[in-house]
Design goal:
- The structure is a single chain.
- With 322 residues, the protein is of the alpha/beta class.
- The chain has two domains: 218 residues, D-Maltodextrin-Binding Protein, domain 2 (3-Layer(aba) Sandwich), CATH 3.40.190.10; 93 residues, D-Maltodextrin-Binding Protein, domain 2 (3-Layer(aba) Sandwich).
- The protein is built from 13 helices and ten strands.
- Strands 2-1-3-10-4 form a five-stranded mixed β-sheet, with helices on both faces.
- Helix 6 links the parallel strand 6 and strand 7.
């Protein structure tokens, strides 16, 4: 049996256990699966292909898609019950869990460290991360690039408090960056690819050697308890998209461009940095998340320390034996 099949088998069992811990009876509103997505990754490809709707229609489940500018905003919606399932980078679930969100990690994509970076204007005198000292760096608070900035500064021997962090969502950050209102921008694809292709932004540092940049699929605990079969079906369809995407790079870029509103070259650049292959959360990946949580707690970027294990599906530790 393949690792993918093993992962799906484990996921089904874990969701089954979770369902037994709560009520799996479901409610009328559970017939509408509400998914939050961003302008990136396999979830947006799944939306574009329409495969999930076809898969769930026989069960009487419809799908409602809601787009968010970043992971923190998406998980705020999850926390207040506006969506049931979504995808974010590494940092947003840490911030959300620390804020009391009752979420569970469902699966993750492989590392994609080249899909996020800190960029500067093409004519900037900033040549290294060390040169950011005293500078203004824009980023979406609590997003994956928040951790990238922390790690990049640590690597360069610069204190987080020695820079001026400007918290802006991607669209506002791009405007500030293009006008010279900030000196650097920590951002992810496809916004990163667009900054490179249309603004001529120069990459100061990527996540390579600094962060993994996993994408995480998450659900509200209540929905995962009530609808484990639907959650498992989402992951199965994401696996199918992964297989298609790995074999059809050009088609991925063509499908992606209109879905996220970018030109062909930008879509190709972003798609080339995709990481295909959703898999169950392993103890190693959970450990990486715990390190991120501990760093943010030490910097007092989150209000209290958290345990990532509290947001994992039952049985994650068993994966260590596989």
């Amino acid at each position: 049996m393949s690792k993918m099949s093993n992962g799906l088998k484990w996921l089904g069992a874990a969701l089954g256990i979770l369902a037994l811990l709560g009520s799996a009876a479901g409610h009328a509103e559970d017939k509408v699966l509400r998914i939050g997505y961003q302008k990136y990754g396999t979830l947006v490809l799944l939306k574009g292909r329409g495969d999930l709707e076809k898969r769930l229609a026989p069960q009487g489940v419809s799908v409602k898609w809601s787009e968010f500018p970043g992971g923190p905003q998406l998980l705020e919606a999850l926390n207040v019950g506006a969506i049931d399932f979504g995808v974010t980078g590494e940092a947003p679930p840490v911030f959300a869990q620390a804020a009391g969100a009752d979420l569970v990690y469902i699966a993750n994509q492989p590392p994609a460290p080249l899909a996020e970076a800190i960029v500067v204007p093409k004519n900037s005198t900033i040549r290294s991360v060390a040169d950011l000292k005293g500078k203004r760096v824009a980023l979406n608070k609590g997003s994956n690039v928040h951790y990238l900035l922390v790690k990049a500064l640590q690597s360069a021997g610069v204190s987080y408090n020695d820079i001026q962090v400007v918290f802006l969502p991607p669209a506002d950050a791009r405007a500030a960056f293009s006008k010279g209102a900030v000196d650097a921008w920590a951002i992810w694809d496809p916004f990163l690819a667009s900054a490179e292709t249309t603004l001529g932004a120069r990459v100061l540092v990527t996540g390579k050697g600094l962060v993994s940049n996993h994408q995480f699929f998450l659900a509200s605990r209540s929905y995962a308890k009530a609808q484990p079969a639907v959650v498992a079906a989402i992951i199965e369809e994401l696996h199918a998209v992964d297989r298609w995407g790995q074999a059809n790079a050009a088609e991925v870029a063509r499908l992606l461009a209109p879905l996220i509103g970018v030109d062909g070259p930008t879509a190709e650049l972003a798609a080339g940095r995709f990481a295909f292959g959703a898999t169950a959360i392993t103890p190693a990946v959970a450990g990486e998340q715990q390190k991120i949580a501990d760093v943010f707690a030490d910097l007092r970027l989150i209000p209290k320390p958290i345990r990532i294990s509290d947001a994992l599906l039952p049985g994650v530790d068993a994966l260590a034996k596989r």
